[in-house]
Amino acid sequence: MVPAHIAVRCSTSGIDERLKYLMTEVCQQFDAQIEGLEIIPDQVHLLVNVDPQFGIHRLIRHLKGRSSRILRQEYPSLRTRMPSRLHQLVFCGNHRRRTHRGH
Q1: CATH number at residue 37
Q2: Which domain does 19 fall in, by range?
Q3: DSSP state of 54
Q4: pLDDT, tens digit, for every residue of 8-65?
Q5: Please, how many CA atoms are within 13 Å of residue 100, restricted to the half-sphere of its CB?
Q6: What is the C-alpha separation between 95 and 56, in angstroms, rounded?
Q7: CA 40 – CA 38 distance, rounded (Å)
């Protein structure tokens, strides 16, 4: 699992739900599973399980590119408030679940 932090401004009503839909669609396309997704006015927190052979960097590139392009087309007000591409701030790491056994 890889936690990814993507910065995006989506405080306009309806944008957050549309963004969730777009991100889910992209993850399904590339066989990635969303484990956690939180959208707040200027950030998206995403915990995703993606095949390391495909690479988190590719998935994030597709998530940012498609969501930015489509949201700008559907919500013209974002064209002046958002940079041409979503911010490049992404935190990626390897998250492993630990199992504790009682002795």
Answers
A1: 3.30.70.1290
A2: 2-81
A3: T
A4: 555 456 888 999 999 999 999 999 999 998 888 777 888 899 998 998 889 999 998 9
A5: 1
A6: 13
A7: 7
Kindly write down the DSSP assignment for every residue of 15-40, as one continuous string.
Answer: HHHHHHHHHHHHHHHTT-EEEEEEEE
For residue 64, which phi and psi values (nearest 5 degrees)? -70, -45
Tokens (6 digits) for 10: 């989506």
Residue with tokens 């998935």: 59
In this predicted structure, what is the pLDDT of residue 76?
A: 83
Structural domain contains residue 60: yes
**All residues at 6 or more sequence positions from 25 whose CB lies less than 8 Å from its CB, including other chains:** none
CA distance 4 to 59: 10
Local confidence band at 80 (pLDDT 50, 70, 90 cut-offs): confident
Total of domains in the chain: 1
Separation between Cα atoms, residue 53 and residue 17, nearest integer Å: 30
